[in-house]
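Q: For a teaching handout, I want to show students what a protein-ligand complex looks like in token form. Below are the inputs, and the small molecule is zinc ion. Please produce the holo structure.
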Amino acid sequence: MRIEFGVTSHTPGSALVVFAAKDAVLSGAAQALDAALGGAVVNAVKTARFEGDAAQIVELLAPAGTDASRVLVVGTGKPGLADAAMFERIGGGIAARLLASGETKVTVDFGGVSDLAVDTPKAAAHLALGASLRAWRFDKYRTKLPEKQKPTLTEIAIANAGSAGQEWARLEPLVEAVGFTRSLVTEPANVIYPESFVERCRSLADLGVKIEVLDEKEMAQAGMGALLGVAQGSARPPRLLMMEWDGTNGKAKTSTVFVGKGVTFDTGGISIKPAAGMEDMKWDMGGAGAVAGAMKALALRRAKARVVGICGLVENMPDGNAQRPGDVVTTMSGQTVEVINTDAEGRLVLCDAITWVQKRFNPEVIVDLATLTGAIIISLGHEYAGLFSNSDELAKQLVTAGIATGDKLWRFPLGSAYDKMIDSPIADMKNVGPRDGGSITAAQFIGRFVNDGVKWAHLDIAGMAWSAKAGATWEKGATGYGVRLLDRFVEDTLEA
Ligand code: BES
Ligand code: MN
Ligand code: ZN
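A: Here is the structure, written as tokens, with zinc ion included.
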């Protein structure tokens, strides 16, 4: 989507957006248009029972008296309340409406818009972000897509919003970064597997990201028995991907570390999953996808921070060499794990990735992201990801970044009573506890690998990485959850 700010007039033959606040109070530009159209805007608004609620839309097709091919009157809601997030929703609504409408260009006129919760440049930039994110699609494998369903909208021009250039420069990288994550997550598992995931991320090197990759042999040397145990049933060899962005000219001594679960397909292994819905497990690398996208965002906007992203990449398959329930593996930390259920594989991947990154970078802060448990979906549905942390400060920072970006988080408890539930009679721990509190015991497992003094948070994003229906700023499918969250977290905590 091409975004242009500072246009002064609407392009004849294209779509036009004007605004109205609560109770259908027309903006200056909307009033002027209504006058030029002989009251057609007011008529349409009344006919549609439009009340100016936030993101509500009334559409006038080819109205006489204007050179616009169509006019959208878009609600901004109660005076003083429309904030950046609301303008993302509004932008998303406009994009959804016009994307395959036949229109190629829309001009959004902020003329005479007042009483917002943000200034108009900021509103306009967030509108552009919401529209761009909502317009993202993955049609690569659709060779027979009917002409009428193909996207036509390619350009959004914004008029009378002042110069939003600076605001947009901060937000624009997110469009590409979130798109990068969504592509990784959407691709099927015959296309994205550990090696090909790494290859896609190599493009980040052009942006100044340092890339390092460990293969099977190197991981064996490091002693990553848990990660390798998961990988051993697959014909696809595992990888550990390290991406480092340093925008501080080497000044930052410590790194903040993001770790992503990258199970490129999760059959469950020998503890195999039922057939129905198993195709969803192609997006069991959503945590790794978010980490890769966040690194891309940081590099694109040249963030003044030092951040390391780690992806533990494996495929969980059940072949003759696969690990068995009851197997005991030795993790890189030296701790041993009884693998009760081979479908609880994410934590086995994360624990070795976390041990490795602590040894290598000695970080103060670790945030891991993982589509870890079905139980988190039972708890939170698809509105919040679960947050688990040993630090109130870190938890608060993440919750705050979540509110600011729409990637929302809800904190869960941790504690020794939960921790005991994963003690094993034969090894240091088992990889599953009882069914009850399944997301919490999974977090406790990961916590056992975090060094004393390290601030750590675990985000269980199983309910958020993929959406069965379209949302305000995403088409159904991969959401890109986590990219904006991490990007904002870095800005708030490392660049402030
Ligand atoms: N990848 C799954 C979790 C998951 C489920 C993600 C549904 C997205 C949607 C994970 O590896 C898994 O299988 N977890 C098990 C753990 C259980 C065996 C303790 C689960 O949640 O059932
Ligand atoms: Mn699993
Ligand atoms: Zn999994």
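A: Two things your students might notice: The chain has a mean pLDDT of 98. Residues 263, 266, 284, 345-346 surround zinc ion (ligand 3) (CB under 6 Å).
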